[in-house]
UniProtKB/TrEMBL annotation, chain A:
SUPFAM superfamilies: Winged helix' DNA-binding domain (SSF46785)
UniProt domain Transcription regulator PadR N-terminal: residue ranges: 16-86
InterPro entries in alphabetical order: Metal_resp_DNA-bind_regulator, Tscrpt_reg_PadR_N, WH-like_DNA-bd_sf, WH_DNA-bd_sf
Protein name: PadR family transcriptional regulator
UniProt source species: Lysinibacillus agricola
Length: 113, 190
């Protein structure tokens, strides 16, 4: 879907944390995963910067493995802090999506909130 | 898929330049900070500093990460039919650092908020308060100085000095009151 970047801005970190939580993965693999899911509009630079931030905020464990290109490749897994952050993301997401669904479906009655 | 030597060198050079932009100040050595800011004189400074330790561990790591990430991306683009050169151009464009740090976002938001909530009436009110207090201070201070200096009879015989001192103090008090009012309005608008 086009022009998703702005909307995804606040949730991309949660999405990437969820992808990492599924198992060990390296940087560009995440982009490919996102592309396969249909998030084609995400700039590659955004994911790179996001990974730097996850590492800086100590939300991921990193294992370096030799690569065919030269420098060692970093593989990410979630650590305890990352899992907590992911849980907090899903809690916020559940709240947000349920509110939006109510807003969308209830026909405008204010008392639902 | 491997790249030509020239493109590989260009990737390395690009990563060396750009990866520093993704680092925070604390993660860079002083030399890296210098290099980042030097702009056009970059190459010259690099050459001079090359004999000293010029890269932090984080800087080297960020550079390696970017080389790999960019190479993966370029391979992907080339498998979609782009030439090596086209893939490099596209990847370097996408990977070019855009200042979207949390600090800059916060600053942008605050600027936006400031201009959105900026009301000319506030500035007019503040100006009027300053003017009002200034005249009030001038009037009261001058009058007190005039009266304590001996009134009309003493005015031309050094009494004017007391009036002038009173007026001066009144002006200072008036400006002070204006500033306090300004601060109160500014705090209320936060």
């Amino acid at each position: 879907m086009d022009n998703l970047s702005e909307m995804l801005k606040g949730v991309l970190e949660g999405i990437v944390l969820e992808i990492i939580s599924r198992g060990e993965i390296y940087g560009y693999e995440i982009v490919k995963y996102l592309t396969q899911m249909g998030f084609e509009g995400i700039a590659e630079g955004t994911v790179y910067a996001l990974l730097m931030r996850l590492e800086r905020n100590r939300l991921v464990n990193i294992v370096k493995k030799p690569s065919e290109i030269g420098p060692p490749r970093k593989f990410y897994t979630l650590n305890e802090q990352g899992r907590e952050k992911l849980m907090s993301f899903w809690a916020k997401w559940d709240f947000l999506s349920s509110r939006i669904e109510i807003l969308r479906n209830d026909g405008g009655s204010k008392h639902e909130f | 898929m491997s790249f030509s030597r020239e493109i590989q060198e260009r990737i390395n050079r690009f990563a060396k330049e750009q990866s520093q932009n993704y680092l925070q100040d604390a993660e860079m050595t002083y030399m890296e900070k210098l290099r980042k800011k030097s702009g056009q004189t970059k190459r010259k400074i690099d050459k001079q500093l090359s004999k000293f330790k010029g890269r932090s561990n984080q800087g080297r790591e960020a550079q390696d990460d970017m080389i790999l990430y960019m190479s993966d991306y370029m391979n992907d683009l080339m498998s979609q039919g782009l030439t090596e050169q086209e893939a490099f151009n596209k990847a370097s464009e996408e990977m070019k650092f855009a200042s979207n740090s949390e600090q800059s976002e916060d600053l942008n938001e605050r600027f936006q908020q400031y201009y959105e909530t900026r009301d000319p009436a506030d500035y007019e009110a503040i100006g009027l308060f300053y003017g009002g207090f200034l005249f009030l201070g001038l009037g009261i201070g001058g009058l007190i100085g005039f009266l304590t200096g001996g009134g009309y009879e003493a005015f031309f015989d050094r009494g004017w000095i007391d009036t002038a001192i009173g007026a001066g103090i009144g002006i200072i008090i008036g400006i002070g009151l204006g500033q306090i009012t300004n601060a109160i309005i500014a705090l209320k608008k936060r």
